[in-house]
Each structure stands twice: as C-alpha cells, then as structure tokens.
Amino acid sequence: MPINGKSLEHLLPTVRKPGRYVGGEYNSIVKEWDSIPTRVCLAFPDIYDLGMSNLGLAILYDILNGLPDVLAERVYLPWIDMIAALKKANLPLYSLESKRPVADFDIIGVSLPYEQLYTNLLELLDLAGLPLLAAERDESHPLIIAGGHAAFHPEPVADFVDAYVVGDGEEATVEVVRAYQQKRGQSREALLRALAHIPGVYVPRFYEVRYYDDGVIAAIGPIISEARFPVLKRVVSPLPPPPTRLVVPNVDISHNRASIEIQRGCTRGCRFCHAGMVTRPVRERPVEEVLRAIEAIIPQTGFEEIGLLSLSSSDYADVESLVTSINARFSPVHLSISLPALRADNFGVTLAEAVAQGRHSGFTFAPEAATERMRATINKPISTDQMLDVAQQVFERGWRTLKLYFMIGLPGEGMEDVQAIADLARAVHGIGRRIHGRKAQVNVSVNTFVPKPHTPFQWVGLEPRSSIQEKHALLRREIRGRGLKLDYSDPDMTLLEAVLTRGDRRLGAVIQRAWELGARFDAWDEQRQMTAWTRAFAEIGLDPGFYAHRPRPADETFPWEVVSTGVQRRFLWADYQRSQHGETLADCREQCHGCGILRAYKDSRLEGGLCPTSA
Fold this sequence. Notes:
By secondary structure, the protein is of the alpha/beta class.
C-alpha cells in the first residue's frame, strides 16, 4: 500500500525543503499501479537537488514510461533530516509518483555516476528495508540494477548489486525489463542467468577473482557459460531522440534548466579523462533535431535556459550554426544558452558573440595544466597565448566572470608547473581588470588528479598527501586578492575517491563497515566521516595506500578489466609511454590512432560514423 497522506502530513513540516519529498511535479508520470505488470523505480543515491539534474535518469524515465506495460517512478536519497524522520516514524523509503514503498517495485535501477555514492547506495537499500548483500536477496526482493559511469568499474560494490548495465542504457535497460518479464516467477538464479545473456550486462556473482599472496589480482573469469568475458559496453548509434517532456522540479536544483545532449563521446584523447575514453565513439545529434527538441521543451516545461551538453560542447561540428540558429529562432522568448564544456583552442569570436546574446553569468574553461609541457603530457596541447586570447574575447564581449579548472598531481608535475597555475590565473585576471576594472572576477578551481580506470594513466598512483598539501600552500599564497578566488579539493576526498575508483571487490566489506560506522554523503565535505573509513579499513585489514598510491606494473591485471570499453589495453599503454616523452596525439577527427573501437564493434549493427575518420 502507498504511504498514506496523514503520515507525510505530520512528517514533512519537520524537515528542510519538504518539496523534495512530495512528488506531483509538472510532467511527472503516474500510471495506474494495479494495471501495469512491471514496475521500475529509478533511484539516484543523493539528494533531489542533484538527482533531478541527472540527464541519464531523465532519459530512462522517458523511455520506460513510453512502454505501455511498464511504469517508472523515481526516488532520491533523502537528506539527513528526512532520513532521521523516516526512521523515527518507522516509514520505508517511497517513490515520489505513487508514494509506494521502494521495496514493492520489481526492479530498482540505480544511477551511479561517481564512486562517492557507494555508502549512499547502502543507505538507500537500508531505508527501503532491503538486504544489503545481493546474496541475501531472493525472489521476493526487487532486482538491483546499476548503471552510470561508475559501472565501468563495477567491482567495489559488486557484493550489493545484482547486475550492471555497462555503457549506453537506452536499449539495454529495455532488454533487462523484457528479460525480467520472460523469467518472472522463476528462481532468481534463472533470472540472473537470463540477464547475463544480454550484451553489456555484468552479473557479479557469475565471476570469480583470484589473488596472489601480496593482494594483487591473479585472474578474473566467469564461472558459468552464459557470462561474457569481458563484458563489452553497450553503444547506441544514432542517438535516440532526446526527452522533451522533462519533469519540472518542485525546488531549486543544481542545474535548473532543460538539458539536451548534443554529442556523446569525445575525440580529444585527454589522457586523464575517464569519460572521454569510456564514451567513445563520438555520436552527434543533428542541428535540426536539437532545434525541434527545444521547440517541444519550452512550452512543455517553461524553462528559460537550455544546456547544450557534451564532454566538449565546442567540438560539436556545427556548434556555431546551432547557437546562432537557437538565438534566431527563440529570441522572442529570451532563451538563455549554456555551454558547460568549452575548450580554448576552438572557441572563436563567432561562438562568443552568439552565446553572448543570451543571459549569462560567466564562462568556464578547463586548461587543466598551466604549462605547455604539462599540457603535452596530458594530451591537451593548448598554448598559453590561446588561453589569454580567449580570456580577452570573453571579457570584451561583456562577461565579467571567468572560471578556470586546473589539476595538480599530474604525472611528471613539478612545483614550477603549480606556480604557473597562479601566474596564468593572475594574467587572465589582469586582462579582465583592464576591460572591467574591479568588477572582473576570475575563479580558479583546482582538483587533485586521481588516476582513473580505462585511461592511459591507470598505471600511475595518486600523489602523496604531503606533496598535495605543499602545492595547496603555494596556491593559497599566490592566488589571492580582490577579483581572484581559489577553490581546491579536500585531500581526504581525493584519497577516498582514489581508493574507491581503483579498488577491487574486497572493498565491499570496507564500504559496508564504513556505512555501519556512519559514513554516508561522502561527496559532501561537511558530511564526510574519514574516521569511519579509517576504522573500517583497519578492521577489515586492507591498506588504502595499496589501492590509491601504488603504481601498477605494465602487466598487472586490473579489477576493472572484467568490463571492456572497446579501447584496447595496448593502445592505453602506448599512450602512457607517449605521455612520458611529451608526445601528443592529434584529434581523432583528424587522424585515427587505432584505439580499438572500430575492431570492437566491427560486427555490430551500429549505423556508420563510428569514428569521424572511419568513413
């Protein structure tokens, strides 16, 4: 039965932002529960304010509710006050649309875009009244299916998830639902075997991991014939139509705008970038399709800003034409355009002027490194002169705020490279001061590099804390004063991210123990409890440094190699070697470097254009 209105009536006035928990948003979809045979709850294990901005969840919500025999509802992890209120009232976690307990659904589809959500996943399962361990759930419990970028390394939470959808979920998610429908009423083992048949689906219980005495992985392999090895990610091409009947949030959220994915994948080959490697190949959405989507979105949502999403929006082949067309077609409604991912080396005057026609608060660029030597190391060869020229273009066209993203702790980095971050920030600010005076603002965000799976830098280790702190101190001394603002990542968060992103399935016990000790909302600085994590590692007997700081030899088996992105290991190793000599690779649009994508999908039914240079 649904959670009754009287229960919520007494509960919601006691918490902050009760609008997060009431549902009923414009464009939300409520189907008749008793008339729909298959019920899916799409879960985002963080608060509503963040989850409502997740485009992947919105896409699946639209696709599943488009099926006449399926309903899809949503749940987000409540904030700590609502968690306490639910527990005090002895109420289970419920979906927003029908207020049904999450445990009543057939499938719970969990979005895991980043690793710091792992303890939140356990909190969500616990609030729903479900066993945490997949091995302890039976036919009476919903399936727990996970997807998102963290699924490209599924092992750390393999104990808690029944199956992962690796890669693009638009088609695979529907196949998972159909497999469930075909096997409904049979044993959980039979159902999971059916899921293992689906390309791109990884079922952890059907794989075995063996270790050497020193803790390094000796081998990974399947233990049943249905299990694929490795599990090759799913790729959809062309991109399906974007959702246009977007749910309008009840409260202000992190990105309160309509979003359209104009391009999936990236051709740049930045060696640190997990997303750029795992989402290959590039697929672009036609300009007219984007324009038609905007025409549908505006009257159905009332949003006044459109986010044109891509890993590198300015790499979209027709970006200037697209932005110019949007301005021409939607000028009567004063539509604002957001391009959240721009590169300095292909940002031109035409694009600047086109975007400037909308309302704007600032521009963001990500040089990542401040010396040309380090940019060659990471394969982002943007010259300092280009960066300064772009800053001038932006300031001259009315913007007063410019945000710059950098990383420290990159392979081969010295203190002179960190000093160059401060020097470049001050130079950009100087340009702004000449144009806008004291109103010019440069915000500098500095993250510590974490070596990610499936990238050329997966063989290196995280920089030691003492070195990171020394670099932070330099930046604090050098980036200060009116119009300059510095923000950098907390070393504790960096260490935790490195452990979780590079660990194996033995971490499951650590994650569960940390959660039992109070760890949750680990991505939130004010909520992170490192003492719980430290104690959990000690009790389980694992060393976080083994995962985070240890460089890997060339031939070590990685725990994430149970899945394949289609990019070959030998290509990644060769590119890592190139990085050590400062050698760069051209954009894949200009030259194919044989990363392996074409070979991996040569027998698939994908429709042409897998790589821009493959025609």
